[in-house]
Amino acid sequence: MKLRIVLGVGVAALGAWALAAIFTRSEAPAAPVAWQSSQQCVACHAEEAREWTGSWHAQAWTDVEVRKLSNDFSNADCIDCHAPQPIFETGIGNRVLPRTTRRVEGVDCIACHQMQDGRMAGTVQNDGVACRPVAQRELVRPEACGGCHNQHGTVDQWKASRFAQPGPEFRDCIACHMPYRDPGDPSKGRDHTMHGGHDLELVRGAVTLTARRENGVARVAIENVGAGHNFPTDERSRAADVFWRPVAADGAPQLWRKIYRFRNPYRFEVGEPNTELPAGQKLEIAIDDADARGAIEVALFFKLTPYYEDPARPDPERECSLVHSARIEP
Ligand code: HEC
Ligand code: HEC
Ligand code: HEC
Ligand code: HEC
Ligand code: HEC
Known about the structure:
By secondary structure, the protein is of the alpha+beta class. It is 25% helix and 18% strand. The protein binds heme C (HEC) (5 copies).
């Protein structure tokens, strides 16, 4: 009997709380927290945390390639974006500054979400939860990515593309890189894995490869149909190489021959042009070679780091990932 009354009161209280939560979306204001680590977000935001942990953002400080090129960050210029202060600290559109604490967390939750007043930028305002989110739409602007992703012009390339024009083709950075977890229900939020050059499927969707023979000459065309910026973009270590090889009548394997490279070279590679393929553009290459008169195979390979072990005899099948290939008959 007594138990039922207590339970009844409990249910009524719960009902009132739920109604309050629905109509005001808050209880008593939560006390401000001085966030020390993104590990503190994990308990309440498990899904975002799991996706982010598997992302390259989470590895920005530990990434072996970065450590190698930065001499284990003894080049202090490299710390800025690989262990950044919050983007709202420096202001959206400005380049980020380096931080001195919890560097191992790389580009973490706090770097993207924490505002100058300690609240978290998001889609809702709720003063009743620990992180005190506010609706702050600056977070989703391409310029928010640009604090770290415009040193090689990725945001500027996007602005010059059809994807930046208002209308049916408009797609911003997060439309492509943070798809909704459930396309039918945006309220389930966006995928924080943020795939890039390490995801071959994404790279395959960036470009098409077509091949034909015209007046006896083999021609291969690469078109940037799916990237909202140059292909490949941003990191200068990326390269996309076009190769071809004759198809021997007896099927014996032939050496691949490189005919073109899409890449923005390192600064010290003086004299090398930037050959990235802008969004929407197509490049056609004629293979003017006596060995190309018979049946040939053409292919586009993607390379995360630019140099081949033996530049005179590159082995793209071992050293790169195959993006697309085609065959041209005699
Ligand atoms: C202005 C911000 C910024 C600075 C400064 C910066 N980086 Fe980066 N770095 C990035 C971004 C953004 C990416 C991801 C780009 C991409 O994936 O194409 C990246 C990616 C990389 C990668 C590729 C990682 C991989 O796994 O493939 C390497 C290597 C790298 N940076 C090295 C360096 C070195 C060395 C320095 C210092 C000389 C440096 N970075 C300074 C922003 C920066
Ligand atoms: C004690 C639990 C708790 C902790 C710890 C916490 N949050 Fe939250 N956070 C919530 C809840 C609950 C909501 C949803 C509020 C709502 O929908 O009204 C929320 C909302 C948010 C939002 C807005 C979500 C949206 O839909 O717009 C962001 C962004 C956010 N949190 C980031 C963080 C980050 C980053 C941290 C760590 C620094 C963190 N939170 C720590 C409970 C927490
Ligand atoms: C590189 C920047 C970046 C990092 C790192 C990042 N977020 Fe986000 N987060 C965003 C953006 C952009 C959105 C999309 C907001 C929108 O759609 O309005 C978002 C959305 C959210 C939301 C709203 C619900 C959802 O999942 O879309 C929550 C909660 C959130 N982030 C929490 C976190 C937590 C916790 C971490 C760390 C584990 C984290 N974020 C790391 C940029 C980031
Ligand atoms: C505070 C700096 C910072 C911000 C803001 C930021 N990034 Fe990054 N991003 C990086 C760094 C650094 C890397 C490289 C990490 C590594 O591999 O070392 C990176 C890597 C990436 C990659 C490459 C993944 C791969 O496969 O190599 C993608 C894609 C990406 N970011 C997309 C975004 C998008 C979209 C936004 C905006 C919503 C964003 N980033 C915001 C710093 C940032
Ligand atoms: C229409 C879809 C689309 C839009 C919009 C888009 N991207 Fe991409 N992005 C791609 C595809 C496809 C790739 C893989 C091909 C490549 O590397 O260029 C990619 C690759 C990347 C990479 C990884 C490069 C590497 O090799 O690791 C980064 C970083 C990146 N995008 C950042 C951005 C930023 C920042 C914006 C907004 C200014 C943006 N992207 C807008 C589709 C898009």
